[in-house]
What does this fold into?
Amino acid sequence: MKALEATRLLEELSASQWGMVTTAQAAAHGVPRLDLSRLCQSGHLERLAHGVYRNAGAPSEEFESLRATWLAADPSHTAEQRLRDLSGGVVVMGASAASLHGVGDLPADRHEFSAACSSPDPDGAGSPTADASSNPPTSRSPTVSR
It folds into this structure.
């Protein structure tokens, strides 16, 4: 793929994701890893985290690391797709969520997420349920350090 074509495509993909795009999203649109590497070397992209890049023209911001980590948690889906279907998704929690929403003065010194997981029981006993009226599922709460 030509660099100009790849750059244009990545700009479109990243426009609704704080200027960020994942390797999986790029690959799904025909942009191979080698092109991402070359675009980084030429200064068109900046690598933020494993598998997550920011368009060099997009501004850096306070929650960039948190958002990059959230995108990396489900790299094949866009932020828009994930926000449309919140059931079973990865959500920001704890001090990270409070900081993101400007609540309180807790320092978010690490990223905290919660994700649904299915029960190992064949009958489903103890498996989390999620609907619009309940809290996000919290049966597995991985913490990712910055």
